[in-house]
Write a sequence for this structure.
């Protein structure tokens, strides 16, 4: 929206400019030796002078004409200074907006983290390590600087904005994201934010990590896809280390992102209707993948239901998500 003062200043300047041009025409055209004989010549002279071009084809010869010309010379310095200042301001504003992510990104099928602390930093490290596209939404400059230092801009897009400005989330292409992780220090803040976010973008697939397990039903009611009770997960890991330490070590290794293509991970692949695995029973597929690709099938997710170690008669269908153990190179062998 244009500033009223700037509009009035522009109109005043324009009026003063036209007045001076007309006065220049009056005093010069009446002088026998003058070469500015009409209004068009006066405008041409003023524009050439104000733009500092100075062709010299027209020039005032009277005292008052030269005085007006002097005003145009002074005005040219002001205009040049204004243009350079305005250009500098606009360049700085552009670079600042770019740094803050306000120019937006076109990445899609990516992960989005909203809110930044030590926990979300650990999550981001795993996502970046897995070479998944990532966008982080934060609300202060310190976090912006930290994330810029930690991750390459090609791997991680950062947007600094008011977290409650849901319109600005369009800049991280949130509608086309794979998952959105909502992270606040307080479960209550996470819940309140989730309500507003789902109201604006009801189809988002969201993940939250909470301390209070009693709030799980509230998040379920909102349609949050995955609710992770932090204390419950930690307690299960600790218990596993106590009585099944090797199982705990294997689990920790598999769920963490691998450091090289040869490391084993638990992976998942969604099958299309064209996948050669569709229509086969689980057991034959298990044997085939193990023998041919050294891939170990673990479970199948169908319509949101996790089926662990399916029976021999289980028939694989299109849209099923296969969950399996493989390294980065073997993962490419599963035809989705």
């Amino acid at each position: 929206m244009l500033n009223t003062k700037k509009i009035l200043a522009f109109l005043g300047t324009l009026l003063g400019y036209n007045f001076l041009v007309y006065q220049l025409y009056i005093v010069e055209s009446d002088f026998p030796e003058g070469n500015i004989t009409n209004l068009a010549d006066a405008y041409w002279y003023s524009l050439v002078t104000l733009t500092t071009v100075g062709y010299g084809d027209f020039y005032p010869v009277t005292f008052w004409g030269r005085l007006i010309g002097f005003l145009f010379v002074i005005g040219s310095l002001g205009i040049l200074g204004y243009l350079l200042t305005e250009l500098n301001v606009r360049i700085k504003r552009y670079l600042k907006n770019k740094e803050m992510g306000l120019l937006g990104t076109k990445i899609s099928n990516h992960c989005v983290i909203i809110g930044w602390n030590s926990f979300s930093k650990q999550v981001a490290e795993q996502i970046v390590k897995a070479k998944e596209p990532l966008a982080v939404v934060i609300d202060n400059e310190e976090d912006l600087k930290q994330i810029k230092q930690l991750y390459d801009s090609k791997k991680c897009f950062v947007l600094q904005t008011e977290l409650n400005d849901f319109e600005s989330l369009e800049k991280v292409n949130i509608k086309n994201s794979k998952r959105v992780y909502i992270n606040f220090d307080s479960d209550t803040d996470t819940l309140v934010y989730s309500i507003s976010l789902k109201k604006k973008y009801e189809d988002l697939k969201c993940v939250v990590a909470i301390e209070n397990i009693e709030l799980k039903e509230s998040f379920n009611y909102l349609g949050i896809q995955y609710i992770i009770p932090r204390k419950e997960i930690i307690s299960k890991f600790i218990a596993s280390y106590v009585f099944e330490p090797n199982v705990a070590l294997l689990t920790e290794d598999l769920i963490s992102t691998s450091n090289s293509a040869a490391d084993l991970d638990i992976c998942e692949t969604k099958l299309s209707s064209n996948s050669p695995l569709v229509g086969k029973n689980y057991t034959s597929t298990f044997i085939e993948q193990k023998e041919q690709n050294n891939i170990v099938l673990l479970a199948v997710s169908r319509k949101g239901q996790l089926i662990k170690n399916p029976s021999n008669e289980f028939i694989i269908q299109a849209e099923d998500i296969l969950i399996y153990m493989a390294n980065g190179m073997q993962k490419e062998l599963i035809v989705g």
